[in-house]
Amino acid sequence: xxxxxxxxxxxGGNMRDRLRAAxxxxxxxxxxxxxxxxxxxxxxxxxxxxxxxxVWVMVPAHVTESTIDEVAALLSEGDIVIDGxxxxxxDDQPRAERLGARGIGxxxxxxxxxxxxxxxxxxxxxGGEKADVDKCMPLFEALKPAGEFGFAHAGKHGAGHYAKMxxxxxxxxxxxxxxxxxxxxxxAEMVEDVPAVFKSWREGSVVxxxxxxxxxxxxxxxxxxxxIKGYAEDTGEGRxxxxxxxxxxxxxxxxxxxxxxxxxxxxxxxxxMKAVAALRNQFGGHAVKKG
Length: 291
Prior knowledge:
There is one protein chain. By secondary structure, the chain is of the alpha/beta class. The chain has two domains: about 1-155, Rossmann fold (3-Layer(aba) Sandwich); about 165-275, Orthogonal Bundle (N-(1-d-carboxylethyl)-l-norvaline Dehydrogenase, domain 2). It has twelve helices and seven strands. Strands 2-1-3-4-5-6-7 form a seven-stranded mixed beta sheet, with helices on both faces. Helix 6 links the parallel strand 6 and strand 7. Helix 7 packs across helix 10. The model has no long low-confidence stretch (mean pLDDT about 95). Belongs to the 6-phosphogluconate dehydrogenase family.
């Protein structure tokens, strides 16, 4: 099957390689000419001769809308646009309606797998019409891991990105649980080999996971993580997950706390804890450390 792929960064470039290895013809475009197969989006579309033409967009969220509009202007009725980036789910239905008015199909696809997807396959969560999903199934089959798992037609437009948002919220919570365990083990007087403990959990334990494997890998490289600053960004999905929890009155204790912990990691000296220290000093005469 033919595919136009826009955005050949860490995810997109590896997806192109995996699809080609499965026998698909992929024409890739990126604003970095050294990795691009063509010099423009119009050239990309011209090289797609099969019907329907399918163009998969894998670009940062802030340029997704403009990129999709530019691609759609080059397509015809019956063609399909796929957004595989980390767009907000609420953008998908309006986008589908706008493209649908011109007869162009639209699918939103949550993609998980990171830099390991080329080797292991990608978990795909798809939103959109079943007819469009069916047309693109050869691509999804090539990208997903072998076997019965790794793909879901999650529902209507927006469902794919919504599922990916929740996936990333869960990821926040899982990572923070491992992180807190790491800190407690490091603080314990009797534990002498923290990396060995994490390694022991990789088989036979109910907390075994791919994230645990990756933490073990990081500890192999730096057993105390001394070379890494304790600063963690968030890319938006965690915030959106908490927003949805508030909207739907769903208690998200762990995910919310893990998101707030990331905010705290960016503070050199917490203003909130300054206030706590000042209050303890005022009501109890407790000592404070001067800045």
